[in-house]
Design a protein that fits this description.
Layout lengths: L2 E10 L4 E4 L1 H14 L8 E7 L5 E7 L3 H14 L13 H10 L2 E7 L2 E2 L5 E7 L5 E10 L1
Antiparallel strand pairs: 1-8, 2-7, 3-5, 3-8, 4-7, 5-6
Length: 143
């Protein structure tokens, strides 16, 4: 048995945030397992989570202490301030730089039907230039 499915999610983000999408991705995995009449504990695979934007990103990070998100944003703001020399007419060059560093995708292993994440990990849509309506894709592969 091998199956794959592309799932599309839509989110509305605020100005800047780490938007936890772990539950949404797991629900899509659960739905595919159910749709294929598979036994959850026997399902292995992976899911690629992809954000098709240049001012937002996908990250695996801390899910228990909100101060970590604050600190990440603070660090990114200090690493990538808005310089007057930037030429990009939209004025969001720092958001593009943050995306370049953070990345637009993450791959997570699926083990026994569940996302294999560390105890303190979650999948985040990182908004660097909101508020926006964002689309995220998950390519789920089950083996």
């Amino acid at each position: 048995m091998s199956t794959a499915k592309l799932v599309k999610f839509n989110f509305h983000t605020s100005l800047r945030e780490f938007f936890n999408i772990t539950g949404t991705v797991q629900e899509a995995v659960d739905s595919l397992i159910s749709e294929k009449n598979l036994t959850q504990t026997e399902v292995e695979g992976s899911v690629l989570v992809f954000c098709p934007y240049t001012t937002a990103a996908i990250s695996l990070n801390e899910n228990t202490d909100p101060d970590v998100q604050h600190d990440i944003f603070l660090g990114l703001e200090r690493a990538f301030p808005a310089y007057p020399e930037f030429k990009h007419s939209e004025g969001n060059s720092p958001a593009h730089l943050k995306n370049t560093i953070t990345g637009c995708s993450e791959t997570v292993i699926i083990h026994e039907g569940k996302l294999l994440l560390g105890v303190f990990q979650a999948i985040y849509l990182c908004e660097f230039d909101g508020p926006r309506n964002r689309t995220v894709y998950a390519q789920i592969h089950l083996y």
